[in-house]
UniProtKB/TrEMBL annotation:
GO terms for molecular function: methyltransferase activity. Signal peptide: none annotated. It comes from the Bacteria. InterPro entries: ATL_DNA_repair (IPR052520), MethylDNA_cys_MeTrfase_DNA-bd (IPR014048), MethylDNA_cys_MeTrfase_DNAb (IPR036217), WH-like_DNA-bd_sf (IPR036388). One of its GO terms (biological process) is DNA repair. This is DNA methyltransferase. It comes from Amycolatopsis lurida NRRL 2430. Residues 5-79 form the Methylated-DNA-[protein]-cysteine S-methyltransferase DNA binding domain. Keywords: DNA damage, Methyltransferase, Transferase.
Length: 107
């Protein structure tokens, strides 16, 4: 992975606003990353200063080891989960089409 891609992924994650969530796949699509797993790797290694809690798995759930803290942080921002799952239809980040977040920007 090159530094440019790494920074692009970080920028896209940083742009997800409070009260919204995105999936690892959403971030990969917008940033042009080859896979959602790479997004997770970047967050795990270099995401301490990012709003990591706004990034969820494709089914709207947090990773099990982050569950309690992640849901608590999301609730504080107004994202109310249904049990342990966030309703992506309601809270999913809709990127501003005028915002140039990268080559893979789909939404």
């Amino acid at each position: 992975m090159d530094d440019e891609l790494h920074e692009r992924v970080r920028e896209v994650i940083a742009s997800v606003p409070a009260g919204s969530v995105a999936t690892y796949g959403d971030i990969a699509s917008v940033s042009g990353a080859p896979s959602p797993r790479l997004v997770g790797r970047i967050l795990g290694e270099d995401g301490h200063d990012l709003p990591w809690h706004r990034i969820l798995r494709a089914d709207g759930t947090p990773a099990p080891h982050l569950l309690d803290e992640q849901l608590q942080r999301l609730r504080a921002e107004g994202v109310i989960p249904d049990g342990q799952r966030v309703d992506l239809r309601k809270y999913r980040w809709q990127r501003d089409p005028d915002d140039d977040a990268g080559p893979g920007a789909l939404f």
